[in-house]
Each structure stands twice: as C-alpha cells, then as structure tokens.
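Hi all, long-time lurker, first post. I run a small reading group and we've been trying to get comfortable going from sequence to structure in the token notation. Rather than ask abstract questions, I figured I'd post a concrete chain and ask someone more experienced to write out its structure so we can walk through it together at our next meeting. Sequence below, copied exactly:
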Amino acid sequence: MNPRDIPDKLVGNEDERAVSPVIGVILMVAITVILAAVLAAFVLDLGDTSEPVQASFGIDEDTTDGNLTVTVQDASRLDAVNVAGCDDEPEIFGGEPSVGSSTELNYTDDNNIGGCEEGDTINIVGVYQGSEQVIRSYQIEGED
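-- Answer (accepted) --
Happy to help. Here is the structure in token form:
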C-alpha cells in the first residue's frame, strides 16, 4: 500500500468531498431560521396564552324587596366584576373582589341594576387581564 493513497481513502476524491459541506451549510441555515422563529415568538409575544376567568359566585334573592346578594365564592383569576342588569349600564361590584366579599343589588331600583321583572336575566361578568367573560347568569324569580 502506497502512503500517498491513504488521504484519498480517508477523505474521498474531489467529487465526494463537496457533498458534506453543502449539507452542513443547509443544516446551519435551517437551524438559524428555527432559532430566529423561536426568538421572534417570545419577543413579539405571539404565543399569548391568556387564561380565562376562573371564579364562582353565589346569588341569594330576596323576592319581597327585589334585592340580590352576590357573594364571591372563588376568585382565582379575577380582577374585577360587573353585574349586567336589565338596564344597559353594568353595575361595578366594587373594589377588588375577594373570596367572601359580597354586594347587594336591587333589580327594581332604576338607580341600581333596575328595570328588571320576573323572568329577566342578570349576567355576572368577570374581568381578568382585560378579557371579559360571563361567569354566571341568574334568572329573576320575582315575588312568590
């Protein structure tokens, strides 16, 4: 065996050597594009996974005077609460809602969530990170 033939056997001839650098360049470009896409997704916040509102409420109705007592039972993901009554103006729950906090609303008083009658529906709307979601709907029973 001639020592001059050894490099040709290890490296390959002129036609075979060009394949490896071309594949290497293609792989490097592909890796660069993938990394750029991942970084762009984080920087531009394209992977926004905002979570929905998670809360629950208890509602007690006093049919004699038209009062509803709305009590927060769970406020895991909850920034604010609006109660949409029969008029077009939602009533703000008041303050930052916390478990056990409650508010009393009157569905017959036009200065509150008024204008409601038996069978009308009141929606409790939760707000979390700027997103609104109807958490509970309540149908007014009215006088017994």
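A couple of things your group might point at:
The longest strand covers residues 67-77.
Strands lie at 54-62, 67-77, 80-84, 91-92, 102-106, 121-128, 131-139.
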